Amino acid sequence: MIPRPSGKIDQDFFVVARDIKYTYEGGIEALKGINLRIKKGEFIAIVGGNGSGKTTLAKSLNGLLRPTAGSVDVAGRPAATMTVAELARFVGYAFQNPDHQLFSGTVEEEVRFGPKNLGMPDGEVKKQVEHAIVLMGLDGCRSSQPLSLTLGLRRKVSIASVIAMDPQVILLDEPTTGLDGREMSDLMSCVRALNEEGHTIILITHDMRLVAQHAKRVLVMAGGRVVLDSDPAGVFSDLEILQSSKLEPPPVTVLAHRLAEFGIPLDIATPEQLVEQVMALLGGKR
Amino acid sequence: MRPLELRDVVFTYADSPKPALDGVSLDVEKGEFVTLLGENGSGKSTVCLLANGLIPHALKGSLGGSVKIFGFEVSRHSVAEFATRVGIVFQEPESQLFCMSVEEEVSFGPENLAVPREEIRDRVEWALGLVGMKGYNDRSPFSLSGGEKQRVAIAAALSMHPDMIVLDEPAYALDPVGRKELYRVLKELKDKQGMTVLLAERDAEEASEFSDRVVLLKAGKVVGSGKPREMLKDPDRLRSLGILPPQLSEVSTLLNRRLGRSDLEFSDVPGSVRAITRLLSARDGGKA
């Protein structure tokens, strides 16, 4: 028998999208054919300008939107045959605006709602809620009213209520928008912890500094297509694709490109990386 | 008259136990571009809301000290009186758009001031041109992207021909290129129209490039005020204030530390390129 390599390859992937398209009512074509294969445990950033299709793609992966063409498989099953509730156990989605998602009287009730609604046994619900609350650092405000909390904490509650359903993949739609520096690094260290537990993270963002710090793989979107799928180094060394996708390269990346004649690599994305390179050049000749 | 003069201002929102501003004194000069930087809860938005009288007229609380807008004591004049001098743009454009078309939205303010029809038309075109939204006149604001909505909100503020524009984190929903464009528009308004710009931000990256002065806020107090270079050169201090430091100042601070010097201070790409080129060339020169 001749093996079927494509089937075998796809088995290694937890989420597979084949040529998916999405057209909104009124004819706006937000996705124009996306192919994507995602393994368990990846940390992927989806970047692109306003209106590039990032959110539409994310919602197409967890059934909040059903592609108008093409297909999505999740955990080896066609997503089209699964309900949104079934999909939520595999792919969780935290909204950009947490207030679209919060409605309960206390943080704990909010976090409990998802797993309870999925019909998890009580013991399991309790375990998941505790895990989500502790991991997101919400222990101190479990009986607070979600909408009375600061934006940074509301974001964390909305993410906790997603992870309490124990999805393998967690989609975070611009989770740092509106957060200050402190709240941002606090939130991102929680997200890292989730990734270290084995969760696949898909982070939708504009912030190239976050991408540089956290992502292992970057999808650049423009005009409803993935125009680049690469490791962060590949993205940061391509200033043209960043600019044409309405993404400003971080200032240190621009600086590195201007210093290329000294042998500084083009894929610099953080101040630390640049300083290491400069120090190596200085030290090497001493 | 100074666009804004705060003297020992203490303001506590009606529903809050502790003051949002706790003894703030701050002057904004005519034609100045001032960026207020601070973490969430530091008092940035409260300063913005005071600068056009929404505090204390629309948002209640107890106000102490003195607030003067173009020389007028804030509590003695209505928001409508200040509206012709001060335009305000909020973080969420949805909170201020309500008309059926972009054109109606942008002409709403001057119509209320009974500006002649012809002039309104000119102002709408001028304002839409400035924010890069020419030709969007008949579109519904609600069909626009987040970034486009924000530009319409700014055009609506500009069509009033204010002397000062106040923006509370206006780049919140914009992609990076949209952010840069917005800042360029604001700088152009300042340079070409002499407009005073007061901006609240959380991210220090653009503040250094575009503003004349940076004011650092923490827990309702001014903890620094001066040239952007001076205010943004210490990344550790900025981080302790909950502000994301600019990357280039991080680079120079790290290099100083590693090289045991204290003179490097990067604030823009060309300057940083020159300084690092000097460092690396000196190495080659020393060897020769």
Biggest sheet record of chain A: 6 strands, mixed
N- and C-termini, Cα separation of chain A: 64 Å
The strand line-up of the biggest sheet of chain A is: 6-7-8-3-9-10
Distance between the termini of chain B: 61 Å
Broad shape of chain A:
globular
Description:
The complex is a heterodimer of chains A (286) and B (288). Chain A is an alpha/beta fold. Chain A has twelve helices and ten strands. Chain B has 288 residues and is of the alpha/beta class. Chain B has two domains: 4-229, Rossmann fold (3-Layer(aba) Sandwich), CATH 3.40.50.300; 246-288, no CATH class. Chain B is globular. In chain B, 47% of the residues are buried. The interface between A and B is large, with 42 and 46 residues.
In short:
The complex is a heterodimer of chains A (286) and B (288). Chain A is α/β, with parallel strands linked by helices and 286 residues long.
Task: Please name the defining characteristics of this protein.
heterodimer, A: 286 residues, alpha/beta, 6-stranded mixed sheet, 4-stranded antiparallel sheet, 12 helices, 10 strands, 40% helix, 21% strand, disordered N terminus, B: 288 residues, Rossmann fold, 2 domains, globular
Write the layout of secondary structure elements.
The complex is a heterodimer of chains A (286) and B (288).
Chain A (H helix, E strand, L loop, with lengths): L4 H7 L3 E9 L5 E10 L4 E6 L5 H8 L7 E6 L2 E2 L5 H5 L2 E4 L12 H11 L4 H14 L15 H13 L5 E5 L7 H16 L3 E6 L2 H7 L2 E6 L2 E6 L1 H5 L2 H6 L6 H8 L12 H14 L2
Parallel strand pairs in A: 3-8, 3-9, 6-7, 7-8
Antiparallel strand pairs in A: 1-2, 1-4, 4-5, 9-10
Helix pairs in contact in A: 4-5, 4-6, 5-6
Chain B lengths: L3 E10 L7 E8 L4 E5 L6 H7 L3 H4 L3 E9 L2 E2 L5 H5 L2 E4 L12 H11 L4 H14 L15 H13 L5 E5 L7 H18 L2 E6 L5 H4 L2 E6 L2 E6 L1 H4 L3 H6 L6 H13 L9 H19 L1
Parallel strand pairs in B: 3-8, 3-9, 6-7, 7-8
Antiparallel strand pairs in B: 1-2, 1-4, 4-5, 9-10
